[in-house]
# Entry
Amino acid sequence: MTMAPAPVSQRVRVAVLDRIVRGEWAEGTPLPSEAALCREFGTSRGPVRRALAALRAEGAVIGGRGRAPVVGKVVPARPILDGRSFTDWALSEGRSPGQRTLSLDRRPATSAVAGVLGLDEGGTVVELVRIRMLDGRPVMLERAAFAPDVGRHLFGFDPDSGSVTTELARHGVAPAEVRHTVDAVAANRLDAESLGVAVGTPLLRDRRRSGDASGRAVGLTDARYRPDLATLTVGA
# Structure
């Protein structure tokens, strides 16, 4: 079956957005005129205007109604249900992922964590706290607690070197089931210091429960994002 070509307006939108995301056109840069875009893409003003309207709706372009359009701020959106790690998602967005580990320790589990992971209250979990970055900027603080038989694999791994999800999968621990709860939370002191915001700043939180093929919970993650630098979408 032959796929129909994408509408011209969509092709214009994708091309312009790609230049913005790659930094070819920086925030605040005036866009080429409609006439210039028409010449470049060999089309009329209608598709160009529809493309610009879609980019305005996304915040990638600002201006209009008598004001020349300029590049806005593109906030990368992470689909939380597609199963990709933060590292893989960042790379797919053309961004450079990074992380800085604040702690990796065995700790007594809180009653809430112990209950979810099926441990006795006060039982030991492996706790990992990392700052996650895009292009060198801190965008998310990640707190993860793992059942001890799962988390032990991390002590032979440098969490600053890449994806914990990939490392655990290398040891045969690949989540078969992931449940997400997304809400907003005020930044506490550690959040604020790690992400460069004021205490009390609203953050976007994704609490994730990972289970194995038997349905047993093996990990809990609390990921807190700066919504001005990264956001979440529900869908692939």
Q: What stands out?
A: The helical segments are 8-21, 34-41, 45-58, 86-92, 111-117, 148-151, 164-170, 189-195. Residues 116 and 217 are 7 Å apart (CA to CA). The mean pLDDT is 89.
